């Protein structure tokens, strides 16, 4: 998730008028396999009711690992982020699948466990820097880390979706080289490590290297 410092305090009085109804985009049922994440997983839209949960979840780990995010992170920052997801809910580019389920990945989605109305425990987002290239970004609250949740979401929701988008030729995850947790997510989800990108980004003005991981949809793989 990326955010910028708000230029003015959030206006809470109009939240009810601006808010959107919570929409469930994907439901991944829990499994009976004890070695996997054992809970129903829902990917939904964001609503302003999520602001306190986002603010409480953004810790120094998330702040350090994300590209651009304010610190300390407040409910006003969260409301600004939610406003952005409501204003631009669709993908930056890239058409939806021409077959398969009607569910569609949106640019920013909340991750909820057990129920579609449970408090959000994380976020997953998507960009299309090019018409054939999907890029994934994500974060999880501390309570949801280390349980195999994010690899399961990517492997069982995101990659099958990308495989149905005929124009998609590549899905990638880039994370700072010190972000070992995100690297493990990519590896567990079946991504291939491609190498390091030197001085890939300048978080807080400091040149920082990144590790690049990719997954190629079956229809785009060269024989």
Could you walk me through the main structural features you see in this protein, from its secondary elements to its overall organization?
The structure is a single chain. The chain is α+β, with helices and mostly antiparallel strands. It has one domain (21-220): Aminopeptidase. Helix content is 25%, strand content 26%. It is built from 6 helices and 8 strands; from the N terminus they run H-E-E-H-H-H-E-E-E-H-E-H-E-E. An 8-stranded mixed sheet has the order 1-2-3-4-5-6-8-7, covered by helices on one side. Strand 4 and strand 5 form a beta hairpin. Helix 2 crosses helix 4 (75-87). The longest helix is centred in the C-terminal third of the chain and has 16 residues, at 149-164. It is globular and about 50 Å long. The chain starts with 14 loop residues before the first helix and ends in an 8-residue tail after the last strand. The model is unreliable at 1-18 and 92-103 (pLDDT under 50). InterPro entries: Acyl_CoA_acyltransferase, GNAT_dom, Ribosomal_N-acetyltransferase. It comes from Allomyces macrogynus (strain ATCC 38327). Residues 68-217 form the N-acetyltransferase domain. GO terms for molecular function: protein N-terminal-serine acetyltransferase activity; protein-N-terminal-alanine acetyltransferase activity. This is N-acetyltransferase domain-containing protein.
């Amino acid at each position: 998730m990326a955010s910028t410092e708000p230029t003015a305090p959030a206006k809470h009085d109009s939240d009810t008028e601006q808010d959107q109804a919570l929409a469930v985009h994907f439901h991944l049922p829990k499994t009976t396999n004890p070695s996997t994440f054992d809970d129903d997983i829902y990917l939904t839209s964001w609503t302003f009711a999520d602001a306190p949960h986002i603010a409480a979840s953004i810790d120094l780990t998330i702040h350090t690992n994300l590209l651009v995010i304010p610190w300390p992170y407040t409910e006003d920052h969260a409301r600004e982020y939610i406003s952005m997801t409501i204003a631009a809910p669709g993908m930056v580019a890239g058409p939806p699948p021409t077959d398969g389920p009607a569910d569609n990945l949106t640019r920013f989605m909340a991750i909820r466990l057990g129920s579609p109305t449970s408090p959000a425990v994380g976020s997953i987002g998507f960009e299309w820097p090019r018409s054939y290239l999907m890029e994934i970004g994500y974060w999880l609250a501390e309570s949801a880390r280390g349980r195999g949740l994010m690899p399961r979401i990517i492997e069982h929701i995101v990659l099958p979706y990308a495989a149905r988008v005929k124009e998609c030729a590549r899905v990638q995850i880039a994370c700072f080289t010190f972000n070992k947790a995100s690297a493990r997510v990519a590896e567990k989800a079946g991504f291939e490590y491609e190498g390091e990108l030197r001085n890939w980004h300048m978080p807080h003005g400091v040149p920082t290297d990144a590790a690049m991981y990719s997954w190629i949809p079956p229809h785009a793989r060269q024989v």
